Amino acid sequence: MEQKKIHGSTHDDDHDRSLTIEHIPLDLLGEIFSRLPAKLIGRSRSVSKLWSSITTTPSFINLFAASSQPCALLIFSKRDKLFVFSSPQAESYKFTIPRDGFLQRYDSVHGLVYLETSTQLMIWNPTMKHFFTLPEPEESEGKYITGSLGYDPIECKYKALCHLTGDKIGILTLGSQESWRILSQGFPSHYRRMTDCVICINGVIYYQCFSGLSLAHAIMSFDLKSEKFHLIKYPSRDGCFFVSYEGRLALMLSSNGRSGIELWILVNAENHEWVYKHFPTPYLGQAFWVLRDMKLKGVTAAGEFIYFYSPFSNYSCRKDLVHLGSEGWSGFKVIYFDPKKNSSREVNFPGIAFDDLKRLRVLGSDLIEGLTVVPNHIESLTSL
Questions:
Q1: How far, in Å, CA of 334 to CA of 314, rounded?
Q2: How many other CB atoms are there within 10 angstroms of residue 375's CB atom?
Q3: What is the pTM of this model?
Q4: Environment class of residue 120 by beta-carbon count within 10 Å: exposed (0-12), middle (13-18) or buried (19+)?
Q5: What Cα–Cα distance (Å) separates residue 57 from each residue in 26, 50, 381?
Q6: How confident is the model at residue 13 (pLDDT cuts 50, 70, 90)?
Q7: What's phi and psi for 22, nearest 5 deg?
Q8: Weakest-pLDDT range from 75-79, 187-191, 224-228
Q9: How many of the other CB atoms lie within 10 Å of CB of 14?
Q10: Is 277 within 8 Å of 352 (Cβ atoms)?
């Protein structure tokens, strides 16, 4: 590759001095690259072997992720179609799931989006625009039932967890070129519940399960570093969904009425100790019909409650969608409410995917119930 030179001269030196990029320390180059947008970093990898080697090292990938500004992702699926919208980048993506796949669940874990169909587990990197299908366990090890993805911030590794028939569990470390490690014992007896209540917080995966002969509702935790399982008792009635609140697992329950928002926060998993918090219904300063159809979707790392609204919620019959025009489409609306400051902020997602949603005959109830808001998604340069 032809080296580009930066020429400079001084008044007390008549000859030019040349500086090639190879004279710049590698750690300084890495720091410079980490400040570039992800798209430019991706392009720089094809410029030279040196630049590619710098930007693909684990240390650089971790440095870039640590400096990445979190963004909000809105994820919605309908049949074999997946829609993803991001803010403040104002980017949107639409994909067709291969093999006529029907998405059962999806989630964002440290920059990667986990996609689960009835037959396979897939990983999507929105930053690199790459899909990766996890290898299937051997038939003798059992058939796939459901799975999840986690990230260990200590060892900086992604691991997939797969529940198989025959009361077996598979563990796969991504990027290590290893096969599934199958466990048939060494964990509490339980049955994984087929729900969306799965979350990874600080290197621990939590998911709903049935335990014991009575099949009582419980929560199973899996520590990604030690690969140990631990059963946690529920603190309240079922019907809550999992969120990360101030770096801890929390169960959230809410209605659009006067009951407000209820949180059960896990403070000690070993002793099944939970703390209860109640927040009154926030004042969001929205019209009645917006508040009526608004849905609480989670909480940010800063403790803001996330509400979602779509004008599609006004259309409860599919025949009404025929007469809906794009001129009346105002996009999605996400409102963040901070209970500590008693203030709210609003983010609009205008003019996105209108034709696709109309063509799929998506009703307001489909969007309100089925759409997932990921508040703290980061960009990732991880290649699988």
A1: 17
A2: 21
A3: 0.82
A4: middle
A5: 12, 11, 10
A6: very low
A7: -70, -10
A8: 75-79
A9: 7
A10: no
Residue 69 CB contacts under 8 Å (≥ 6 apart), including other chains: 378
d(CA 294, CA 290): 6
Q: For 297-326, how does the pLDDT look when each residue is reduced to its tens digit (9 = 90+)?
A: 888 888 888 887 766 555 555 555 555 555
AA letter at 218: A
Confidence of residue 5 (pLDDT cuts 50, 70, 90): very low
User: Residues 117-160: pLDDT tens digits?
Assistant: 777 788 988 888 888 888 888 877 888 888 899 999 999 999 99
Q: What is the dihedral of CA 295, 297, 300, 306, to 10 degrees?
A: -10
Structure tokens at 42: 């991706």
What is the arrangement of strands in the sheet containing 168-173, beginning at the earlier edge strand?
144-152, 157-164, 168-173, 181-183
Token readout for 371 is 């759409």
